[in-house]
Amino acid sequence: MRAELKDRDIHVAAFRHFLELEDADDVDILGKVGFDLIRVPMRRDRVSRIWTQDESWLLAQLNEAAVPPAQLVRRPFWETCLDHYALYGIDDLEDARTYSAPQFVERFGAFRTLAQRYGGPDRMRLDLEAVKAHLYIPMAA
User: Fold this and answer.
1) What is the pLDDT confidence band of residue 5, given thresholds at 50, 70 and 90?
2) Does residue 110 register a pLDDT over 70?
3) What are the Cα distances from residue 120, in Å, to 76, 94, 111, 124, 127?
4) FRET pair for 122, CA 20 to 30 Å: which of 3, 18, 96, 128?
5) Whole-model pTM over 0.90
6) Alpha-carbon separation of residue 30 from 1, 20, 46, 74, 94 (angstroms)
7) C-alpha angle with apex 135: 130 to 137, nearest 5 degrees?
8) Are 42 and 135 in contact (CB under 8 A)?
9) Handedness of CA 70, 73, 77, 78 (dihedral sign)
10) Structural Rg of the chain based on CA atoms
């Protein structure tokens, strides 16, 4: 949908600036414009909800309940991912270059090593899709 809007010279970035929603995701900005939403959740609100209200969902998704704290990989990875998402948005989490950023490399090493420790790239993709879907469940701003 964003590509179609851009083809028609309609840019979400312009709405972001005009509506002063610098920390909102494109989907929330389009919801504001398309449905005249009164309040729009910010990315940091979505992340906060994950850690305060839905952490048990995330931990079940990651399947690391029986892993000793020193051997955890998925939870620390998602701590870093969600911090990154709060700053830059969901598109960055889908860009492979993101995982070469210093905050990922310093904490987890090279992507290949991380993927192996995580359980493979397919497992990472599965969790990414689940987290993305869960980030965008309806919430009050």
Assistant:
1) confident
2) yes
3) 16, 16, 11, 6, 11
4) 3
5) no
6) 10, 13, 16, 31, 20
7) 100
8) no
9) negative
10) 16
